[in-house]
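Sanity check

After download, print the first record. It should look like this:
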Amino acid sequence: MIIDAKRLPQHFTVEADICVVGAGAAGITLARDLAGSNKQVALLEGGDLTYTTESQHLYAGEVVGHSSIPLDADRLRFFGGTTNHWAGSCKPFWPSDFEDWPFGLETLEPYYRRAHTICQLGPYTYNPDDWMSEQARALKFLPGSHFESGVFQYSPPTRFGTVYHDDLASSSNVTVYLNANLIDIETRESDREVTGLKLACLDGKRFQARARQYVLAAGGVENARLLLSSNKVRAAGLGNEFDLVGRYFQDHPYVPGAATILADSARSDLLFYTQHYVGNTQIEGYVRATDEVMRKEQLPPFAIGFRALAPIVSDFGGFTLPAGLRTRLSDDTANSLTYFVQRLMIDVESSWDFLHYKIWRKPQGLFTTSYICGTAPDRESRVTLGNSVDALGMRRSVLDWRLPADFEIKMRRAHELLGEELGRMGAGRLRLESAATGHDPMQDISNGHHQMGTTRMNRDPHQGVVDEHCRVHSLANLYIAGSSLFPSYACDDPTMTIVALALRLSDHLKSLPN
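Expected structure tokens:
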């Protein structure tokens, strides 16, 4: 059942066994998996079925660290959440990506397989050998190589609010409440439990929810904001006994055009690393350093893709806004526009080049790289509360995203190692771009739109906000879902892992007594 909370009576009480806050990838997956169980579930969504400016503006906040897309543009605040503009990239984490997690890949593997279906992906394989085609074949790295290939699959992409709307609407034990904004999490000082949620609509209506278990699934920034804002009993906010809530924020820095590769024009294997279809599945190859090399060189987990430069397109990585236009825009808006134009040009170039190859069988020999990485967790990279408030009286978020001081050094080192490898294979020559070549890639860094890490998972309450079951350490019945759980950051789009973690949390909640 789906109910517009604006139609509820004033001071109505929602009763359930489990209340889930947020109907994005995590919240919808969790509620849908609980459908048909013996649990009554209330899924509380702050937005409506479709986008509204008034609701979206509740996400507005301040960016004080490294430049980032404005907070109210990066995430979407209506049913389906940010899957409503998700590009669809998916891949399980590598085993080494779980080194800082309280469990390994073997624990999440069965949930990845289930998430794979939910994200509407192709065959469950990420071995490059299984995705070879006549048109595009992966590089064959030599024995002892510093590099290996991997594969991203692309979801259609799945718009969770659209695809799974009917499942939730027809469920006998799940009720979705739209326009239901959480404004406070209630506890009693003597209790280690949440006793209720205070909720509000933008039209002024106030009501509440009562449940046995509560789950915050509102995203990397909002999960932290909601915990920090619930400070009537604990001045520092809920779950923040050790000053961890909001800390260790991370997004993926994305760098287009860090290097240019001149390949043998007779080769087709570099086309494997552009977006293309194999059967009905869109994939994109990438290269990464082996675990041994990453440890030796102290490199973060990274992925480098290649973008074929079609003859009709110039250097997209060097795109900049005209000076006159840039001076009339805020830095955030200018950077956002630059990023989206670059991404559009990347997509156009990639599609053109593959079409060009299929029709004329003559691939271009000029490529540029795209680099994305998961940097080391940084305690000072964080979300806090500002002094300004939104239309509901909630203090707005302040984002201080920080990149490591050695980010450029490690990015360049990754490309140097790749250049050596390509040369050793006879696959091509790589030129690192810089201010001296006329294009400084450090000027084009953008965020990857992946808000992670603000309620990190760790068995030790001194090191994490939640335990290995996603429960807030200091509260017996409050759980977290989503990428804010991540204690460290692979270089992958987090959606598939978000879904897998939500399925794992669902199994845990099902095991609890009513």
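If your output differs, re-run the checksum step. Summary of this record's structure: The chain has a mean pLDDT of 89.
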